[in-house]
Amino acid sequence: MSNKTLIIGAGGVGNVVAFKCAMNTQTFGEITLASRTISKCDAIAKNVKEKVGVDIQTSSVDADNVPELIKLFKKIQPNIVINVALPYQDLTIMDACVECGIDYLDTANYEHPDTAKFEYKEQWERNDAFKEANIMALLGSGFDPGVTNVFCAYAQKHYFDEIHTIDILDCNAGDHGYPFATNFNPEINLREVSAKGRYWQKNEDGQGEWIETEPMEIMQVWDYPEVGEKDSYLLYHEEMESLVKHIKGLKRIRFFMTFGQSYLTHMKCLENVGMLGIKEVEHKGQKIIPMEFLATLLPDPASLGERTTGKTNIGIYAKGIKDGKEKTVYIYQVSDHEKCYEEVLSQGVSYTTGVPAMIGAKLMLENKWQNKGVYNMEEFDPDPFMEELMVQGLPWQVIEK
Ligand code: NDP
């Protein structure tokens, strides 16, 4: 019997997931795309039909509302729910999946709308509920988190006895021509980059500890293959929380992301005047959240595709020991914004997130990645995922030193 797939969220990433699932209908079967705004789902379904020739059903749903989700799940009876709405909806969608006995996948960890925490705690706490319901949740199946976790697992499996240090390196050298815009949801993006930096290392007693830095305090210039030298800033990023638990012998892990000067200057200025605030303020008798208002003013990330040129390069740089000798391995993937747009009408950041979401779901439906409970990406065999990346649009490279 054919599978049924439900995608929630009709933004930039949802568009790519819809396209890529439609290109793999032998696995995904009947596809439904649901979001708060059904017209966005219909527009994506129309494009998929025109370009790929596959029909996608659409539906509206408020994913903050568990009973509404349960009603939709019972009607569609999907084998899997791919959550590419916002991180605020992770827990409600997970709870509805438990209630209905359906596998779950997402690309970003849960966040409470009022506090930016970037932690897996509340999702990991649902492990027993998922086990009891005999279903699986795969957390963080985007690029970072997602492919970066798989790159680490692949390095551990094929290149090292022990990995000592990992630097995750995320470069977007795309140019959309606007003085300031974010490549994915502005609220989530600006919360992430305006937060304090953090990295993990083992202290002299061998205990792991998180070291906090001021936002953008640590910068290093990195020479990205096919892109060139770029200023890269240390940020906290969620995949580090699970990688420190699962990578053998790790002594330090850091995450760096590139930013241009124009982006940083705009962000600082917006922060200084309070526009990045996530607490309500009163304006002429109306309550508004500055960050939400800013998101309304900024270009919709889904609209950047058509005008973005340049490349992304995301990878991991790992050092460690193999057969008693020191070794360095750099695994990376380069995507071209214009090629992504040509294929699925999206820029590279949505593309590099949506393709791994589809691959994670494909491996779950094909029983190549299956277990009961809540899992992060590096807990599974990286090989089938790495093979899929090669054929589904995200070919990668390894440099061994
Ligand atoms: P967008 O803002 O473009 O899209 C989000 C979509 O979710 C919108 O279509 C929106 O609704 C829908 N949505 C929001 N709230 C609800 C709700 N209550 N009920 C139903 N639908 C809702 O975001 P992106 O596509 O850029 O990002 C999607 C996800 O991917 C985010 O969680 C983001 O953090 C993650 N991400 C992960 C990356 C990774 O590498 N791991 C990289 C980039 C993004 P509406 O229908 O009204 O438009």
UniProtKB/TrEMBL annotation:
The lineage of its organism: Bacteria, Pseudomonadati, Campylobacterota, Epsilonproteobacteria, Campylobacterales. Gene3D superfamilies: Dihydrodipicolinate Reductase, domain 2, NAD(P)-binding Rossmann-like Domain. Residues 6-138 form the Saccharopine dehydrogenase NADP binding domain. This is Carboxynorspermidine dehydrogenase, putative (EC). Keywords: Oxidoreductase. GO terms for molecular function: oxidoreductase activity. It comes from the Bacteria. Its EC number is 1.1.1.-. Pfam families: Sacchrp_dh_C, Sacchrp_dh_NADP. SUPFAM superfamilies: NAD(P)-binding Rossmann-fold domains (SSF51735). Residues 142-393 form the Saccharopine dehydrogenase-like C-terminal domain.
